[in-house]
Amino acid sequence: MEQQGRQPHDAAAREAMAGHRIVIVMPAYNAARTLERTYADIPHDLVERIILVDDVSRDETVEIAKQLGLDVIVHRQNRGYGGNQKTCYDAALEMGAEVVIMLHPDYQYDATRIPALVEPILRGDADLMLGSRFLGDPRAGGMPTWKFISNRFLTALENFAFGLRLSEYHTGFRAYSRRLLETIPYHRNSDDFVFDQELVSQVVAAGGFRIGEIAVPTRYFEEASSVGFRRSVVYGLSTLRVVARFVLHRVRVRPSPKLTPRAPRD
User: Fold this and answer.
1) How many CB atoms lie within 10 A of CB 256?
2) DSSP structural state of residue 107
3) Residues 45-67: pLDDT tens digits?
């Protein structure tokens, strides 16, 4: 597994995206105050479809998404962050996406970086790309100190377990190749926030996939969604369980069905 961190010139990245089926998915919950700003930063001439999956929001998220012309899917009951993503990826693959971009609609991540995020996948140099806050200084964008410290600890632990040297695993701005999503059994994952970490562990366990990252500026402000301290503790403990499951699977002490790739399609 290789890591790609090169930041291509935007013009080259945009040229690489031309003619490809790029689909953005947005797992949304109460995103009415930030959705329009997130949407405005997207390079629409390079993206074929934008799917928003609403997890029973209590605000005007669905109405705003429809006004913007997004493909909207509404859950009948709240399925959680991970359950929302499962619906997102199923819908994107059904639409024939070659690359699927997961973007939080809370305006925390800089969506203008989409061409640079996608270009390594289209070039064949990566299968999973992460938009990292830690290739810069996330504290400059307002990241709380306790979030900074916990992220550094969990990332160091995951790097040790997975044998990688990534700057961050906990970003809400990612891109996946179609081949990866068709191989990784993401439906076996949690419906909660730890879904993202389970998916990365599956990618590493499967082998043959390359993970890369680019720097992405982020913003912390009142309207942006944020997991509180107590929920972050639960998330951290869940991430530790993911790492433990991966290690036990890798040393063949306790094989996990979650870490077994799906059979390839005909």
Assistant:
1) 16
2) S
3) 999 999 999 999 999 999 999 99
Which tokens in the block code for residue 160?
Answer: 């040790």
Comparing C-alpha atoms, which of 90, 89, 86, 94 is closest to residue 188? 86
Residue 261 lies in a domain: no
Instruction: Name the H helices within the chain.
Output: 10-17, 35-40, 61-67, 80-94, 114-122, 145-162, 178-183, 195-206, 229-250
User: What's the length of the chain?
Assistant: 266
Sign of the Cα pseudo-torsion (227, 232, 28, 63, in order): negative
Query: Residue 173 is part of a domain; what is its CATH number?
Result: 3.90.550.10
Give the SS3 label for residue 26.
Answer: strand
Instruction: Write the pLDDT tens digit of every residue in 110-166.
Output: 999 999 999 999 999 999 999 999 999 998 888 889 899 999 999 999 999 999 999
